[in-house]
Design brief:
Helices cover 90% and strands 0% of the residues. It is mainly α. It has 2 domains: 2-174, Four Helix Bundle (Hemerythrin (Met), subunit A); 178-222, no CATH class.
Length: 223
């Protein structure tokens, strides 16, 4: 039972997460774009720092090479002049600088490899950023179109409501008037009972009328 409840809760949570992601998709896209932009900027800053370090190492290695070459020439000259003390001191300095140069060359090679890798990563990241921004523009356009379609659907629902109202009005207006129906029934009953025959004959000029008319009233007033 607990496993079933856990499964149901997990499923409900997943559906809620999907619903939130769908509702706030554009906001999430913008946030991820900002995060990706920050990461891309950090990679570019790191690449610039590595290139700066490589230049510094290359400059120092070049300086060491020149110093080694200069000391080699001087050591040979010291040997030719039987100055073993100077030659030996130059030899020790040359050995130390060659070891330093070897270390710097190793560092320089490692920097070159790292720069190459990061440069490729940065280029790929830049291309992806361009695609992401373009896709984000497309996503915003689609979401705007979806919003417009929703409003159009609401307008369509209003049209349906108006059509239903018109149909109801037509039904009401098409129904029989109960007062007119009662009047017709009364007329039918009057005809069947001949109670209105005398009135109809009087209206036709046969016999005196049983009803007062406006002409009768005026005649009495004149007299």
């Amino acid at each position: 039972m607990f496993a079933t409840l856990r499964t149901l809760v997990t499923g409900a949570s997943a559906r809620a997460d999907e619903q939130v992601r769908s509702i706030y998709a554009i906001e999430l896209i913008d946030q991820k774009l900002r995060e990706a932009t920050d990461a891309h900027k950090a990679a570019r800053v790191t690449l610039a720092w590595l290139i700066q370090q490589r230049r510094g190492q290359a400059t120092q290695l070049e300086t060491l090479s020149k110093r080694i070459l200069d000391l080699m020439v001087r050591a040979k000259e010291a040997l030719s002049k039987d100055r073993m003390d100077l030659a030996e001191e130059a030899a020790r300095a040359i050995a130390q600088m060659e070891n330093e140069a070897q270390t710097r060359q190793t560092t320089l090679d490692r920097l070159e490899t790292r720069i190459l890798q990061l440069h490729q990563t940065t280029e790929a990241s830049h291309r992806r950023m361009v695609d992401l921004k373009q896709n984000a523009v497309t996503a915003r356009a689609i979401r705007k179109e979806q919003g417009m379609q929703t409003r159009l659907n609401q307008i369509g629902s209003g049209d349906n409501a108006m059509a239903e109202a018109e149909e109801l009005i037509a039904e009401v207006m098409g129904q029989d008037d109960p007062f007119e129906k009662a009047q017709i029934l009364a007329e039918i009953d009057q005809e069947l009972s001949y109670s209105g025959l005398a009135d109809r004959m009087a209206e036709a000029g046969v016999g005196a009328s049983n009803k007062s008319t406006a002409a009768d009233i005026l005649a009495r007033l004149k007299s």
